[in-house]
Specification:
about 90 residues; mainly alpha; about 0% strand; coiled coil; ubl conjugation pathway
Length: about 90
């Protein structure tokens, strides 16, 4: 069995900035929940929190995907769905 050295992980400035921004966002959400629970109690706050949380999480997921694509250099180009592009230029 071959022995190899442990893989080295590199921490980049972008990674630390992303971590800090996510951390601040989570802390802000936690403060908002605590304020909402202490100010107004009940199920209405929970239902609004669920609806608001779902919308923001999907938008951050799209932003995160764009950030990752930018980081790795992936630029998706949608292909047009016209007949000549699907079948080529067929001539009979």
């Amino acid at each position: 069995m071959l022995r190899r050295k442990p893989t080295r992980l590199e921490l980049k400035i972008d990674d630390t900035e992303e971590f800090e921004s996510v951390k601040k966002e989570l802390e802000a959400r936690k403060r908002q929940r605590e304020e909402a629970e202490s100010g107004v109690g009940g199920a209405s706050v929970i239902s609004v929190d669920i609806i608001g949380g779902g919308a923001s999480s999907s938008s951050t997921a799209a932003g995160r995907a764009e950030l990752i694509n930018e980081r790795i250099g992936y630029k998706p180009h949608p292909k047009p769905a016209t007949l000549p592009t699907l079948f080529g230029s067929l001539q009979f």
